[in-house]
Design the sequence.
């Protein structure tokens, strides 16, 4: 169930979706033309790594928010979100690579 969505020029800024399990979480993230960022909250590190590997977005956060990361981290999305070309960090020079940035907080 989609809990909230705020749009700017027809593009989503925030979507919060409650899901019943891992597979549904991955489907919820990947079932979109957008792919800027996603976050998951879990106690299972194995599930966290699997989520990181299976979702199609440019930034993935585990047990933390998707905003306010260090400015030196590469920033950009997949598909119709942002730019495939990372805007910051050394990745800005690698125009033809696809990078996924991950943050995991295991201090639940």
Sequence:
């Amino acid at each position: 169930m989609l809990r909230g969505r705020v749009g700017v020029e027809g593009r989503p800024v925030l979507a919060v979706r409650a899901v019943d399990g891992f597979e549904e979480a991955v489907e919820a993230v990947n079932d979109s033309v957008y792919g800027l960022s996603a976050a998951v909250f879990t106690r299972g590190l194995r599930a966290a790594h699997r989520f990181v590997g299976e979702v199609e977005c440019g930034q993935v956060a585990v047990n933390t928010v998707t905003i306010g990361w260090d400015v030196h981290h590469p920033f950009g999305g997949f598909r119709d979100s942002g730019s495939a070309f990372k805007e910051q960090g050394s990745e800005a020079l690698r125009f033809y690579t696809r990078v996924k940035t991950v943050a995991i907080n295991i201090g639940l």
Summary: The two ends are 25 Å apart (CA to CA). The chain is about 20% helix and 25% strand.
